[in-house]
Amino acid sequence: MFRKLTKKLYYHLPRPLRNYILFIYRVGYWPNFKNPKTYNEKIGYRKRNWDNELFITCSDKIAVREYVAAVVGDKYLIESVYADKGKVSEELLTSIVAKHGNVLVKANHNSGPVQFLYAESSSETVRKVSEEINRQLTHDYGGPKMEGWYSHISRGVIIEKNISITGYDLPDYRFHVFNNIDGSQPKIIVNMDMDRELNHHRAVFDEEFNRLPFSWRVPDSQHALLKPKNYDTMLAIAKDLAKPFSYVRVDLFNVNGRIYFGEMTFAHESGHGRFTPRSRDRWLGDLWTMDPAQ
Fold first, then answer.
1. For the chain, is the Cβ count within 10 Å smaller at the N or the C terminus?
2. Which pLDDT belongs to residue 166?
């Protein structure tokens, strides 16, 4: 009873105050968003003061494809079999799966769960995917998270071919690119996410793909991980896509050396990713030397 009452009171608080409380609960310290020093504080500052219209374009899973094609070329884009504004029907999804086989269905305006459909998916599965995607389209993803750029995206659906060899989740290489005001080479930290659906774990590396000894919100992977094929090309792609920003996370996939663009994210973990040890939060914040609003 007390827990339900507390939750009810929490959701009646102003959004910025709720976000402040959530930061303390998840990250574990009192933040300073006016004079941010740590990485998570700088994400919090960005959420309150963002000032780069490209955040909108590059967070839109449909519009970002044009940006990627213009900057690094369309050969790094996953094949899209459908992209349009508005909702999707079961009939549309059924016809797309019949024609293209295994696909991923995503709302373009959020960072919500990706829906998988396979050639053998039942009509019940197709119905549930249609309902889930259409439900996502009714929600303002950016508002509750204070990531306002998402709120400016015209909502729609994009369906892409499933590039996974096994048909399921692929390792996700996330390049955190911190640019410098003098134009010198950016600082890059890479986190590799695996088994997100069943046993989510994460490994963190420096730019040379040397393992770094800390965890970032989810458990640290205990597996020995090798540098992927064409890793230098992945670095170059991430750097090129990140040039207009003080900091951005660029997600790439690598399938036996074939590189694919995933997405771009401007508030990793919404600025609520706890570091272990906590000192790494400040260490990463020190890499972010330019205006977080940009």
1. N
2. 61
Pairwise CA distance, residues 36 & 29, whole Å: 13
**Dihedral of alpha carbons 280, 208, 248, 62, sign:** negative
* Cα–Cα dist 176/251, whole Å: 9
Residues 6+ apart with CB under 8 A from 160: 78, 79, 80, 81, 103, 104, 106
Average pLDDT over residues 220-239: 89
pLDDT exceeds 90 at position 11: no
- Preceding omega of 213 cis (within 30 degrees of 0): no
Token pair 């929490």 is at which residue? 10
Distance between CA atoms of 237 and 193, rounded to whole angstroms? 19
Rg from Cα positions in the chain: 19
As a 3-state breakdown, the chain gives helix, strand, coil percent values, each rounded to 5, of 40, 20, 40
